[in-house]
Amino acid sequence: MPSPPRYRQAPVDRLASRRFPAVRAGAWEQAEDMRTRSGTYRTVPGRIGRRWGHSHAVVIAASVATPAAAQDRPASPPAESSGDIVIEGKRLDERSIVGASPPLAVLDAAALQALGTTSLAEMLKKLQSLTRSSSGEPSIFLLNGRRISGFEEMQDIPQEAIEKFELLSEADATRFGYPPTRRVANIITKRHFRSLELEQQSNATTEGGGTGIMTRAAVTRLDGPGRLTLGVRGERRLAITEAQRDLDPLPGLTSRSIAAASRTIRGNAAWAVALGRTISLSVSGSAERQADLSLLGVAIGSPDPARQRSVIGTTTGGVAVSGALGDWTWNGTASATNLISTVTSLGGDPSRAFRTRSTTRTLATKLVANGPLVHLPAGDATLVVALDGDDSRSRRAGSSGDAARIFGRRTGAATVTASLPVTSVREDVLPMLGDVTATATGGIGHVTGGGTYPRVAATLGWQPLRAVRVGATIDRKQTPPSVNQLFDPVRSFPNVPYFDNLTGQTVLVDVIGGGNARLAPERQRRNAVDLTLKPFAKRELTLALTYATTDIIDQAISVSQPTLRVEAAFPALFTRDNNGRLLSVDSRPVNLARERRRELTANLFWAGPLGPQPAPPAPPSAGAPPPTRPPREPFFLFANVSPTLRLADRLVLADGQPALDLLDGDAFGGNGGQPRFEGNVYTSLSRGGIAGGFDLQWRAGTRVRSDLAAADLRFDSLVTVGAYLIAPLAKITGGQHWGKAVHIALNARNLFNERQRVRDRDGVTPIGFRPAYLDPFGRSVMVTLRSLF
Q: Please, which residues bridge with residue 484 across strands?
């Protein structure tokens, strides 16, 4: 019998026509694919199977032998053919975004269930330390491998409808038209899913006040590429007053709230549909109204307490379109936002009464196209082109009788990103070096009235081994101030407790807020080196380390700590009387000269079952009795540890001023200096639908040095622990059928009621730094009942 022919497999993401001349000669037209129900592809000898997915081509050259092999082996007569060649393969999911680089994490439904969350928003909140990049920027969210117009498109999707969660590193952000400073999170849903979700939540603090309730209902329909979600949510929370925390009112005041009462109602809808084989469309819209009421206090003896009411109404709409043209893919998003904010003072001194109203309308668009540029020996060079546009119109009106002010601003930006494979193990190009990829991004933006600003970034990725990846990033950007920073209406907030570092006393001051039209654009330079270790191919265990240096010039920030150096740099922001008593503070944003940070961050992540896994049950033989009970489910552990070590943080407030060492006794913010060490730990253990875990956050102590004993402050380290438990109600009711669709969740925030402790050199806590002022809520308990039908 003649020896079987040899076959060669083309790269997974490469068309065979680039590697095999026989295919280019027209073998595609002769291909006959037959896919069985199990996903098996059969290829007749002498022909080539072509399609294994909608957007990923996997080609097996089953009958194309190398020329050398064809010369050494005589052709087999047709009569002696061994028949069909069966090639087993797994169909690639076109919704996945995992490319050549290994992902940081891939969580399946079991891992997501172990988180013990009841909503997508809560799930992403618990994954925040994993999805947040080393630069602190939030991740880019995709849904089924496609960009969306906003979070409104997916916020009402229940967690049970999620099939997989993929997280890619910052280097992969360039594939989607973003700079290499943000991670990419892709949420893959089940292809077919229907549900009606009802949720009731109650929470309260253990010290009184701050009681809240939340009611939510949502409908979800998933049918392949089609999607429809509808949701409505209402929430109410009571205020927390000084009396409820046994705080003596500050001299001259009473009836103050340290946490405002609030009411929120929100409605949301999203719809998606496929327009042909390559184009998809999604539309979303939402409306929200939030009203807050704060008690500002009243002079003793006055019958009318001062209050402040803030009402914010937000309406958003978005559309996203995605498609493909040959080997190129493209997507466009557009969103419109209308925000109306009204702040009104009620009661109190009539001379201090005010009312401001601002309306901001924003239209944002983004268009991204990416595809192969040229074929290199190590692989395809790819190109990503992104166009951004933003048009804002703002109308601000106050109560002083002045005419309303109208502002407008347009921004536009264009970026081009090229990714070049340098070496490749798979393509046998300098394989001893592993896989090396270089990426460069260049862009320019324009702001009406603000000129142009550049954006330059470059990354170099090196993967010497499958389990090891090393990356380097250089990022240079210039960012114009936001519309709110520039044009927010000026308003005054009376009777605000303020600690004066120059006198060591807590006094009541008027705080002026609003925008600053003279702000300059912020410039930032960031260099980073990261190392990612993923030692097990079939286990989700990842360790990521990042060392980064960041220089910020003309940083726009509000001043909130009147130290000697801060007042020397910005004397116009602080008003004092002839005796040096602080009267008012202007908290409108200003530009700081420059800041330089150096920090080391780490992230250790694990998700998987514990102990040996039970073997899958064998198919029952004929006549055998059914199994008495199903196999025991294993324990599933989810753990994430993310510490940060700050090596340096020096801030120059204004040119000519000495630098502040925020890690060694200098302060700029109202809560002391910058902690040298902080981080959090999140763990969760689940089994059989029951999940429990804890969330630990820690922050190292800081110091604010002063020659005055009452202003020489020590901020103690702080460790807070939260815990939760979630279970199907059927587990509690003994398996009652009516309880199978109901889950009950218990959550405790700040379980040990820990708060920041602040003391001066004499061991006295200043009035403004009392623990209840720094954290009014303290320990709180939340009970949630959720039904999914």
A: none
